[in-house]
Design goal:
This is Response regulator transcription factor. This protein is an alpha/beta fold. The protein contains eleven helices and seven strands.
Amino acid sequence: MTVSVLVVEDEPAFLQRFSQAVLGEPQLRLVGAVSSVAAGKALIAAERPDVVLTDLGLPDGSGIEIIRHAMACRPDCDVLVVTMFGDDAHVTDSIAAGATGYLMKDALPASVAAAVLDVRAGGAPISPGIARRVLQRFRDNALQTGAGTPAATGSPAAAAPADSPLTERETEILRLVAKGLNFADVGGVLGISAHTVVTHVKRIYRKLAVHSRGEAVYEAQVLGLL
């Protein structure tokens, strides 16, 4: 099956580049290439794409609106942010809204198509500089709450809290997802099918009131479940 992709980007050069990358990959199908929040929302509702590739700085609003609209219209949609904004506020807001990946335009991978396929396969492509800062933030939060002490002393990782809304299997799956494994790889590690993994992930989303892998990992970290 082909993966349907919508591109939302107001810079003509990048809009053309991203569109051509999608059109050049047989596994992908371009359902639209637009340059505004309004047009993006309309096509998300009409086409229900599998992946939305969006900038954050758009002429009539923020790409955050695109992310939220995509999550509302199609919760299993993946949103890949490609932007020049690398500050903590934009990254955090994007993840909280439901973005699955976050790439900087000035450090864009050689193949946009590969990034789109990666995010749809269960990956979470994040530019190295952004990933480092996100991990540092999680590490700082863990140290402030004392959760980082076992790892620092070499002790086994602490189990999820007794009052965790997640089962042991769900927590195990979320930990593997947080390490960057896609659903097929998680299934291989645990000896279960990718379909079963997806079923567990949907339950995790529901219990944590989130709509994406990135948001689930972020929320679980904040709640001290990982």
